Amino acid sequence: MVALTPERQLARESVDASGLLVMPGMVDAHVHFMDPGDPSREDFPTGTAGAACAGVTSVVEHTHAAPVISAEDLVEKREYLRTRSRVDFALAAHAWPDRIDEVAGVWRAGASYIKAFTCTTHGVPGFDAARLHELFTQIAHEDAVCLVHCEDESLTSAPGSEGCAKLGESTVASSQRGGAPRPNGLRSPSPASSPRQIVHV
């Protein structure tokens, strides 16, 4: 976006779209390009090229291979990617249980949201209920947005166990009732009122 003005501005380029269907570009707010970190699977140039081909003109990326935790991490990654993306991009950050004090800085530095896991995944440590409450308190203080990867550590730590089977059963039953399984930290209304997006339930 160049400017907000009520006056019509001349474009550098005009496209005749007569007879064509014109739609706004889509936004994918949850992508993992692993760049920098481990781009062997996909990097920013190839990932954003694929996005552009599908009509996605903006992405919000966060990688587990080289997680953004601090404001310095965010600035460094943004600079690294400045010439590597073929579409508009924004970056999200990861919350770390023993580095909750980094939330304010990384949010103010421009993170799109702060992601927290309730289970240890891809080397990212999970939050227990007490730490999650502490995180939400900090998120609320900053008027930030938190995305929660919501799984139970006691069940996911033993794949193939009876506990995981029961988790599947409870997920189906809960879905049939119109609900969704939640970790202990989210069962009760929290005094730390903050915007939260719950994913992977």
Order of H and E elements: EHEHEEHEHEHHE
Query: Percent of residues in beta strands?
Result: 5-15%
Largest sheet descriptor = 4 strands, parallel
Number of domains: 1
Low-confidence stretches: 161-191
The CATH homologous superfamily corresponds to Metal-dependent hydrolases
Question: How does the helix and strand content classify structurally?
Answer: alpha/beta
Globally, the shape reads globular
The CATH architecture would be Alpha-Beta Barrel
CATH topology: TIM Barrel
For the largest sheet, list the strands in their spatial order. Answer: 4-5-6-7
- What is the CATH class name? Alpha Beta
Count of DSSP E strands? Answer: 7
Q: Tell me the number of helical segments per DSSP (H or I, 4 or more residues long).
A: 6
Give the fraction of residues assigned to helices: 25-40%
Q: What average pLDDT do the residues reach?
A: 81
How far is the N terminus from the C terminus?
A: 35 Å
Q: In angstroms, what is the radius of gyration?
A: 20 Å
